[in-house]
Amino acid sequence: MNPLSLFCILAGVTLNAGAQLLLKAGTNAVGHFEFTRANILPIGFRLATQPPIIGGLACYVISVVVWVVGLSRVDVSIAYPMLSLGYIVNAFAAWYLFGEVLSMQKLIGIGIILIGVFVLARS
Question: What is the pLDDT of residues 67-93, one digit of tens each?
Fold first, then answer.
């Protein structure tokens, strides 16, 4: 994998992870909600107008473009497993930004993901 291909794949992963974090920040701003017939429009409007949610959706759009460029250069059997790096980014970012628990079990899972991505990238 050449540097440009790696950049496209990692940029796609990073944008996707960033999108998830922004969506979480937007839903945190709205608070816990239930979609019911009575509140689907007000809650939907509140969600649709949250800047972090708008930013998260924009990150998704850009990540798809970057991902398509990456897929034009890298086999999907190599590129797709790289998406799992997003789990690692999100686990640490959620711990840092949202105070989510980063347990030993999660850390072991992250280690397993890293080993898997390394093995796939070397094949």
Answer: 999 999 999 988 888 888 999 999 999
